[in-house]
Amino acid sequence: MATHANDYIKPELMACCGAREIKDNDLVIVGTGFPAMSANIAKYTHAPNAIMMQESGVIDAQPKRIALSVGDPCLNPGAAMIGGLVEIMGMFLQAGMVDVGFLSGSQVDKYGNINTTVIGDYDHPKSRLPGSGGANPIGSLAKKTLIIALHDKRRLAKKLDFVTTPGYIDGPGAREKWGLPPNTGPQALITNKAVLRFDKDACEAYLASYHPGSSVKEIVDATPWELKVADDVHETQPPTSNELRVLREILDPGRLISIYEKKGYV
Amino acid sequence: MNKVMTAKEAISKHVKSGDFLFIGGYICRSPFSAIHEIIRQGIKDLTITRSNAADDFDMLIGAGCVKRFIATFLSLGLYGLGRCYRRSLEKGIPHKIEVEEYSNLSLPMMLLAGAMGMPFVPVKDMVGTDLLNVKSFMGENKYKMIDSPFDGKPTLLVPSLNPDVGIIHVQQADESGNAQIWGIGGDCQYGANASKKVIIFCERIVTRETIGKDPSRTIVPAPKVVAVVEDPFGAHPGYTPGFYDTDFSYGYLYQQASNTEQGFKEFLKEWVYDIEDRSAYTKHYIEKLGYEAFKKLQADFDYGYPVSYAY
């Protein structure tokens, strides 16, 4: 039986939730921050044979410090292979080899569609965001995607200002209709309050577990759509002492993860 | 043929207002010295492209050099949204650029298709999203959706790109332009080879014989290249594997400066307009931020196992 720590911060719990979605031998495409930490926690605990790649061209990097971008210098020495975008996004992602992709967004809807392009009107933006980058192809082509988002009625949205990255688009059958690979799409939406999963038939996100300190009611109230609740809804398993040890002693001794608290992940 | 020249000569000879430029780099080997030279020479109305753009593209846009951007992404990474990019699109400062949106799969494939001499290429992403609903200067030629002639399935086609000039920064090249890199590739190889002509910026010029010791590292061969510029530290504040690290402190300096239009103008004056070339830039960096800061960025040596091509 794993022992659980009780002195952790929310971003650490979220990173552990991400890690638990990764299986041994998975090929995982990661960005920076949460995704990289999640994938590494998995690798140091239950998924030692998981392999990570960065879209910039790197496979199985062995970074000696925390990578601050997907093109970070520390990803180069020791990697198993370095190419470029055509290799990672084309030869591996588009060809169907990538098991898990991590995404985050400024707005996410109930089908797991994501906006990272614009807030407001596209032609007259209130706030211009970076754009797709690798997000759209990852959301389109990874076998499953994990989405990280803040849980409030602005970030989780009834309607996105712009659909940058496809989740289940407009519901059942839509991905197939557009020719996206079968049996792909969002698997979990990990927020600072809960883990939502996607119903296979309705393609809609439902509440699977609420984080310690939160409640079903609080989460339903903070969700802009009529959130369905799993019959077996339960409290999210807190980080195990082993997960926290890996995170704090091996991966992130400088506790950079606490930056996410300032970004609202509390 | 010896194609070695200064940055000033290379840009004035081979880049003109209205050109379509591929500018390579992915935080790794960003050709900053070329970007600064383009700004200094007041070149305008450019169409620019690269997958995953960063502070260098933000700077070109803020300096008013850009008319059109074939884009996938632009941010300052750790330091958030591109300030000049936002000012351009939200407030029209210095003017509103036109943006054609693709992704980090489709754009590299469009460059690969261009490099291959293919007219277009099928890609599997972008469908079902607003990336297909917004069209800018490429209009109906942004993409075509067809039923595949092979199996009838819906298939997205995107056009190939052939920029007028490709500009990349590499570790080493010989004087005729055989250009070698190691480390993260981004879309450099495809973008450069898709371009009608290529300007190589490098950390060091080496002999043809040195190139021949490890020819698998060459990503652009001499026949594509029109100019070779030796500009050590030329990718700063980006990095070059084996030479120097990313300069996060300088990234912060740029973020703070570019927060306001005035701050950005002062930054350009100090680091671009009042600077003659990359060696003057490096000198200014050391004078302003100290030799220790400069030295700290320099890479340690950790040579790989030498390879043999003998038979």
Task: Provide a descriptive summary of the structure in words.
The complex is a heterodimer of chains A (266) and B (311). Chain A has 8 helices and 14 strands. By secondary structure, chain A is of the alpha/beta class. In chain A, α1 crosses α2 and α2 packs across α7 (241-251). Chain B has 11 helices and 12 strands. In chain B, the strands form 2 sheets. In chain B, strands 1, 2, 3, 4, 8, 9, 10, 11 and 12 form a 9-stranded mixed sheet that branches. In chain B, β6 (144-147) and β7 form a beta hairpin. The mean pLDDT of chain B is 97. Chains A and B meet through α3, β9, α4 and α5 of A and α4, α5, β7 and α6 of B.
Short overview:
By secondary structure, chain A is α/β, with parallel strands linked by helices. Chain A has 8 helices and 14 strands.
Order of helices and strands of chain B: HEHEHEHEHEEEEEHEHEEHHHH
Count interface residues per chain for the largest interface.
A-B, 53 and 56 residues
Question: Which CATH C-level class of chain A is it?
Answer: Alpha Beta
What would you call the shape of chain B?
Answer: globular
Task: Describe the sheet with the most strands of chain A.
Answer: 10 strands, mixed
CATH topology of chain B: Glutaconate Coenzyme A-transferase
> How large a portion of the residues of chain A is in β-strands, by DSSP E?
15-25%
Helix content of chain B: 25-40%
- Identify the CATH homologous superfamily of chain A: Glutaconate Coenzyme A-transferase
Could you list the spans of chain B in which at least 5 consecutive residues all have pLDDT below 50?
none
Name given to the CATH homologous superfamily of chain B = Glutaconate Coenzyme A-transferase
Oligomeric description of these chains: heterodimer
CATH class of chain B: Alpha Beta
Calculate the mean pLDDT score of chain A and round it.
94
**Uncertain ranges of chain A:** none
Specify the CATH architecture of chain A: 3-Layer(aba) Sandwich
